[in-house]
Amino acid sequence: MKPRFYIFLLSFFIVACHTHSGDKAQERNSKDTAKKNDTVKDEEKKLKNTMVIHSIHDTIAILTDFFSPQKIVDGIAYWDPPDSDNTDEQISSDGLCHSNIDEIFKIPGDKNDAHLVVFTSYEYDDKGKREDYHAAEATYDMALLSKDGDSYTIKNSARSFDMCGCWGNGGTVTLENFGKEYVLHISSGFTGQGYTQIFENYFNIHNGEIVFTFQSLDDNSGAYDSTDGSYSSTDENLKPVPDKTGDWDKLKLLGKKSHFDSISHKMIDSTYSLTYIMNTDSNYYTKTKR
């Protein structure tokens, strides 16, 4: 074989190798470019899902900053549920969580103009209607916002700290004073088959931990007549007991229990008092005596 032919084969091999290497390099460059583009898109998405909250009444900014939603329509944020299967968030038929601002409370006397924002999430069907079956309840989230310069920032928050309500409705939320501290009070209940029960839950506004709970009403008057021996009704009311500094170191539940006595054919009423004191180890009010 002539030397010129060897030179031709060698040249072809070198060109082929360079072409193959060039293809690989081009492939790597394409992947790197795509990766960079994805990173840019992720950063842009983060920027879009973060807004400066200039006003405590800026619903769009608050919902965006807290939930990073896909969209916000009529005050409802549509956002991706947590990755964990162990979540109490309400997931609708579209696979998203639908959340809105329930209430905004100004914390009295706070030097940083703190506000507590309470969110509720409900389950919606495939037609965009809120589910209203018996067990359809609300999930609660909260965020504590403080003024930082000319805008508000989220200082503390609690996700899925409570679930309550029925028939597609949640509870009633109020901000209440426990002496030197403020707590979030959620009152909720249900009526079914003639029985009515109402529950009162109190939560720490900084972390969503429950500090006290009791049942304010347990009544079966819808199932039994007041002259029936099975009739009973119990209601309780909370009464704070301040110490010398004005702090609420104790809570008292004043209760009344009623039932119809089938022997005497009379309504029997009895009253009682339960005392609870703050347990500093658990930050929860525990019963001391009857």
Order of helices and strands: HHEEEEEEEEEEEEEE
Main sheet strand line-up = 7-8-9-10-11-12-13-14
- Biggest pleated-sheet summary: 8 strands, antiparallel
Fraction of residues in helix: 10-25%
Give the C-alpha Rg.
31 Å
Counting DSSP E segments of at least 2 residues, the number of strands comes to 14
Summarize the structure.
The protein contains 2 helices and 14 strands; from the N terminus they run ααββββββββββββββ. With 290 residues, it is an alpha+beta fold.
Structural topology:
Layout: H1 3-48, H2 59-67, E1 71-73, E2 76-79, E3 97-106, E4 115-122, E5 138-148, E6 151-164, E7 172-178, E8 181-192, E9 195-204, E10 210-219, E11 232-242, E12 248-261, E13 266-279, E14 284-289
Antiparallel strand pairs: 1-2, 2-3, 3-4, 4-5, 5-6, 7-8, 8-9, 9-10, 10-11, 11-12, 12-13, 13-14
Would you kindly provide a written description of the structure presented here, covering whatever features stand out?
The chain has 2 helices and 14 strands. The longest helix is centred in the first third of the chain and has 46 residues, at 3-48. The protein has helices at 3-48, 59-67, and strands at residues 71-73, 76-79, 97-106, 115-122, 138-148, 151-164, 172-178, 181-192, 195-204, 210-219, 232-242, 248-261, 266-279, 284-289. Helices cover 19% and strands 46% of the residues. The strands form 2 sheets. Strands 7-8-9-10-11-12-13-14 form an 8-stranded antiparallel beta sheet, with no helix packed on it. A 6-stranded antiparallel beta sheet has the order 1-2-3-4-5-6, with helices on one face. By secondary structure, it is of the alpha+beta class. The chain folds into 2 domains: 52-169, no CATH class; 171-290, no CATH class.
